[in-house]
Amino acid sequence: MIEVTFAQLQGWLVAFLWPFARITAFMAMAPLWGHSSVPNRVKVGLAGVISIIIAPVLPAMPEAPIMSWASVGIIIEQIVVGLAFGFVMRIIFAVVQASGEFIGLQMGLAFASFFDAASGTNIMVLSRILYMITLLMFVALNGHLMVLETLVMSFQTLPIGMDMLNANAFEILARYAGTVFASGMLLALPLVGSLLIINLALGILNRSAPQLTVFNIGFPSSLTVGMTLFMVLMTHLGDFLERLFSQGLEFMQGLIELLAQVN
Known about the structure:
Elements: H1 6-29, H2 40-54, H3 69-107, E1 113-116, E2 121-124, H4 125-140, H5 143-157, H6 167-176, H7 179-208, H8 214-234, H9 237-260
Antiparallel strand pairs: 1-2
């Protein structure tokens, strides 16, 4: 007859529960797994399967009773770490969405928006198109597997039950959010610059020849030139996204190491 002691049962529970908290928080925040179209049962089930698979190779767990305030603190700590990793991935995907917003505003497509259930806000059509392309490129380049590998390896560099996390890492994470505007504008700059020149030319034409209806000329011109330049931009989008994914993964690895450095 197989007998299971209370100490063994607690060891099994903590080996599953604490990594499960970090992985679940990450999947709830990450764009691919955290999308509203993915059922919550699938998210929780996938996090549970990953937790069971990696449990035998994890470092030793802290000796804290599972039903204690120390265990609650560890769970909260793991949730914060998982949310931080997921926030990095969300920033990466927000770059292309911001770029689509910049391009759409300059092309005069601000009215072409629809409700996005994932974010709960209205987004432009170009932002949605770029987001879906980025999502497909991320999967095609095995980015989801590399992110999961980085998340699993984080248990070695950032083991469960550390005394405290480095608070400076969260400040750097907040500053990294500026990538949304910097990289987003960098991607949209060729189209925004070209369309700005067209708008300036139309403004000069309106002042020199007021009898012309600039609105009837400006919108078709901006839309035609914008769509043409957008097709040209698509030929270089793959290289841009590859660099963006690489920078995001490098930042995530650096964030893990920084969180592990206690002042």
